[in-house]
Design a protein that fits this description.
- The protein is 32% helix and 23% strand.
- It is α+β, with helices and mostly antiparallel strands.
- It folds into 2 domains: 240 residues, 3-Layer(bba) Sandwich (FAD/NAD(P)-binding domain); 151 residues, Orthogonal Bundle (Helicase, Ruva Protein, domain 3), CATH 1.10.8.50.
- Helix 3 crosses helix 11.
Length: 403
């Protein structure tokens, strides 16, 4: 949509082909229906770094149409924004539909023709250029083509990987596709009893062969199959790569703000407060009720044992447990639960200054189809806005200048 809007703004005739019967199905799901449109990071280099080793590719696109440009795009069209915890930017209405409505109005304003239910069968090319795109019962000839079909995540929205197959048939290399920003399956079955519990301000770290590889601080969510939530999604890509090399262990610190001795002192105060009660009733000030049963199970301390009878060794074992709950990663959940797709069209085959294919002269790329992905918090939509705007601008300018 952003690519079509920008090309239309430049006065070119644009046709937007949409496989679904309506535009923007995935936008309506983002940010839990609120649409986290971008991340308020003013430093361009820091912003690009968040996309990992491929972040440099995005630098030009972000400089042409960055965070401030995205915010201005929506605010100048009547949709005010706000910055929330973690510098995440949302519409003040907390409604993703309002974001989609702005885009729909801009498409109409700029004369973009929209064809829904338009599933591409194939591109026909001659030499190094595309001559036409063939649909079920129609074909369209254009000067330039922008392929921005999304990835494979949330296939119920229509993102079934069509763009990768098309790009590959046109001669492009596709970097291995993996689910990104995806929940983790955990081997320990006791975790399932915590389904629905969300913990804020915890720390998760991943290790392999007893060597810590990476970690995150923030919010974690327990599910029936394992773990989800922002810190889990953000770490999932690195864990996916590690799993290719062997077993990955997680360590969950439930009280990262307290070191061992401080936490021990805190527990001693609680034990003194509840000294006449059973151990199972002594942790209510420290942990959510739903978590207490599991921690008692893991501590192997008799739940009915009087707090005054808990030994120093047992107490310190409890402290170690709270500072490092050990878990084993069984695997990643699939594309049906992934927020983004890792991998995609090889960046070596795309001109970062125009988003033009280096293989097909009149083909451009934008969005999740290319080998770019970022963490949660608005980064992935920002990449879509930036690459879409740049692709639309490049294709539109060329079409306009070659008339």
């Amino acid at each position: 949509m952003m690519a079509a809007i920008r090309a239309g703004e430049l006065g070119t005739r644009v046709v937007l082909l949409e496989k679904n019967e309506k535009l923007g199905r995935k936008i309506l799901l983002t940010g839990k229906g609120r649409c986290n449109i971008t991340h308020a990071e003013p430093n361009l280099r820091k912003l690009a770094e968040q996309y990992g080793k491929n972040g440099n590719f995005l630098f030009h696109a972000l400089s042409v149409f960055g965070v401030k440009d995205v915010v201005n795009f929506f605010e100048s069209r009547g949709l005010k924004t706000k910055i929330e915890r973690g510098n995440r930017v949302f519409p003040v209405t907390d409604n993703a539909q309002d974001v989609l409505d702005v885009l729909m109005r801009e498409l109409k304003k700029n004369g973009v023709e929209i064809m829904t239910g338009a599933e591409i069968k194939r591109f026909e090319k001659e030499g190094g250029t595309i001559k036409r795109v063939v649909l079920d019962n129609n074909e369209i000839t254009a000067r330039n083509y922008i392929l921005c079909t999304g990835g494979k995540s949330y296939p119920v929205t229509g993102s079934t990987g069509d763009g990768y197959r098309i790009a590959e048939k046109l001669g492009h290399n596709i970097i291995e596709l993996k689910p990104g920003l995806v929940p983790l399956k955990i081997k320990e079955k006791w975790l399932g009893k915590l389904q629905g519990l969300s913990l804020k301000n915890v720390e998760i770290s991943a290790s392999q062969n007893n060597k810590k590889i990476t970690g995150r601080f923030g919010e974690c969510l327990f599910t029936h199959f394992g773990l989800s939530g922002p810190i889990i999604l953000d770490i999932s890509g690195e864990i996916g790569d590690l799993l290719d090399k062997g077993e990955v262990k997680l360590s969950l610190d439930l009280k990262p703000a307290l070191d061992f001795s401080t936490l021990d002192e805190r527990i001693q105060k609680d034990f003194k407060k509840y000294q006449s009660r059973g151990f199972k009733n002594s942790l209510r000030d420290l942990l959510p009720q739903k978590l207490i049963v599991s921690i008692i199970f893991l501590s192997r301390i008799d739940p009915d044992k009087k707090v005054s009878s808990v030994t120093k060794e047992e107490r310190q074992k409890l402290v170690r447990l709270l500072k490092s709950v050990s878990l084993t990663v069984e695997g990643l959940m699939g594309f049906d639960q992934a927020i983004v797709t890792k991998g995609g069209v090889d960046l070596n085959e795309i001109d970062h200054k125009t988003m033009r294919s280096k293989i097909i002269d009149n083909l451009f790329f934008a969005g999740e189809i290319i080998d770019i992905d970022g963490p949660t918090g608005g980064y992935n939509l920002q990449a879509c806005w930036s690459t879409g705007h740049l692709a639309g601008q490049s294709a539109g300018n060329e079409a306009k200048n070659s008339r």
